[in-house]
Fold this sequence. Notes:
By secondary structure, this protein is of the alpha+beta class.
Amino acid sequence: xxxxxxxxxxxxxxxxxxxxxxxxxxxxxxxxxxxxxxxxxxxxxxxxxxxxxxxxxxxxxxxxxxxxxxxxxxxxxxxxxxxxxxxxxxxxxxxxxxxxxxxxxxxxxxxxxxxxxxxxxxxxxxxxxxxxxxxxxxxxxxxxxxxxxxxxxxxxxxxxxxxxxxxxxxxxxxxxxxxxxxxxxxxxxxxxxxxxxxxxxxxxxxxxxxxxxxxxxxxxxxx
Length: 223
């Protein structure tokens, strides 16, 4: 919508970059994002709560269906809660690795060196638990949010970009099922756990798997 007389709209303030600036901007961002790695070995060095707040504010700036913003971010720094989350997550993960996971899945995970043990959930100075809100208002069951999974997924993309640009590391963790997060953090029934993200500094000497990304031609095409 280019123009409207409604008081609910404001003029778009936007500096149009030159072609050279466009190329420079995206190349700088691309180069920075290509250094991002998922980390499973964290230092216990604390992260300023003000930094965590800004990171979540970036995530919450993401677009969402009808601007319903169907997310909630629980920022967990309390050692007791982190320990409780680790214990519950490891119980689910042990069940997954020993009983529920298909053999092919375990084969794919083997090069990454992962297991059901998740000490980083306790070591990392902060855990950001992302919940998706199914209802706009729990008192109005018919007022559902729209495109909840898509909206929260986009917000999580913003979240990981913000974490990386701040100079911190993180890991997307998805124990299944994740209902224990709702119980431990006492979240209402209309919120469902979506992602568990440990955030912090990498431990000294941290190593990460040698990975390659698919080429542009493998994942995209101009039409």
